[in-house]
Amino acid sequence: xxxxxxxxxxxxxxxxxxxxxxxxxxxxxxxxxxxxxxxxxxxxxxxxxxxxxxxxxxxxxxxxxxxxxxxxxxxxxxxxxxxxxxxxxxxxxxxxxxxxxxxxxxxxxxxxxxxxxxxxxxxxxxxxxxxxxxxxxxxxxxxxxxxxxxxxxxxxxxxxxxxxxxxxxxxxxxxxxxxxxxxxxxxxx
Length: 189
Known about the structure:
Layout: E1 2-6, H1 10-22, E2 26-31, H2 34-44, E3 48-52, H3 60-69, E4 75-79, E5 90-93, H4 98-146, H5 150-164, H6 168-181
Parallel strand pairs: 1-2, 1-3, 3-4, 4-5
Helix pairs in contact: 2-3, 4-5, 4-6, 5-6
């Protein structure tokens, strides 16, 4: 795994670099302040960013949030003491040792992967729900305007979707738009 070190203290940075290399990780880059950490992370897409709370330029929590929310990389924060500003992130207390750092890296990476999978699943489910809602509205329009049963309306949408090579949601949206443009669906909205 490629790791970006965002640690301003040269001694701490050297210690962590040696621990990482000794344990099979590669250091893809080093940042000396928060904005540099963000810039390098976006350009290199490391597997992990290790960031010190004492990093120059502050904003460590903001940078960590941006990196994780944008899916750039998981962040492991180095802290001198428990800090409420970093409670939402994985962190390891200084002084850093191999017995504290390596398990924290693995845990951070695993948790990040789980969060990314969950976010994808949430997005998929939201899309599925939106599709169901649009299809239900389109079926209602077909039932009302074309005198179809619910089953016939659903089958019509499915068949049109397959014949035209369009997603079911797109066909349903077209039915709704056509109904609105003809003026028939305005009383239902």
